[in-house]
Amino acid sequence: MTHAQTLPRPVFDNGISAVPVRELSPTGDFEESAPYRLFGLAPCTPVIGAEISGVDLGAPLTAELHAELHRALLEWKVLFFRDQDLTARQHRDLARWWGTPEVHPFLPKADVPEVVRLSRGADSPAVENVWHSDASFETTPPMGSILRAVRVPDVGGDTLWSDMGAAYDGLPADTRKRLDTLAAVHDFTRTFGSQLSADELARQQRKYPAVTHPVIRTHPETGRRLLYVNRIFTSHIVGLPDAESGDLLAYLYDQARHPEYQVRLHWRPGTVAFWDNRATQHYASADYYPHPRVMERVTIVGDRPI
Fold first, then answer.
1. Coil, strand, or helix at residue 246?
2. Which domains does the chain have, with CATH numbers?
3. Across-strand partners of 213?
4. What is the pTM of this model?
5. How many other CB atoms sit within 10 Å of the CB of residue 22?
6. In this predicted model, what pLDDT tens digit does every residue of 90-110 receive, in sequence order?
């Protein structure tokens, strides 16, 4: 089945088309990828997520291994590594292979400033259970994030990722055409702003003013068209009346919720997930309260969406 051979698309009473029934592809071109020589790779779904075996992330990478891991990241959007024993410094140094690790302006830090420590439990309920991409409120949002499980509950606390290239492909053609010309505003005050005093909020707004990004961005390396709005940070679409902007954004936010676009990871201590933040959204399931869940994350500086 090719892109041109999709089945008839049912239309609901509200005029919104259903998701097409078709084969999905990691790259969008329905071609088998070249084999990987330096590690094992097991796809988790047909479209997103792969588990990597035979790699010790605590050991220094080689240029050849980095190149193959990067190709796998572009193809599968999120990579999973089990049984990794990393210190915070090793975690940060691993991220440096892909760019500059950023110091997050709002989240709590581990002993290493570039490492965010997300500690949840009875005294700190989870708040990450909303589909989002990391720090889209920045002028140059992260290209990727590397998340490490330090302590996880026996049951629950999974994380899900959704492929925003597949989400774009699944939209009706007339909707895609319309979205290609639109831009949206992203603003941290929708979430992190509620935690700040008035003076600190004003200071951070000067440092991180609201930014405008295209609703559909083009991946700078693969050329894939990607849906790039998210419920946490996107406030409105430029040039549309408030009601129309809200309705359209609600529809676009919901595209991440299709199981056909998703992969789900059950964590174990020592599991590492590395995702392409340009091409995905993620959601941390908050079904483990009051049990503790401690994660550490490094995000890597990206470029301005185009």
1. helix
2. 36-300 (3.60.130.10)
3. 184
4. 0.89
5. 16
6. 999 999 999 999 998 878 788
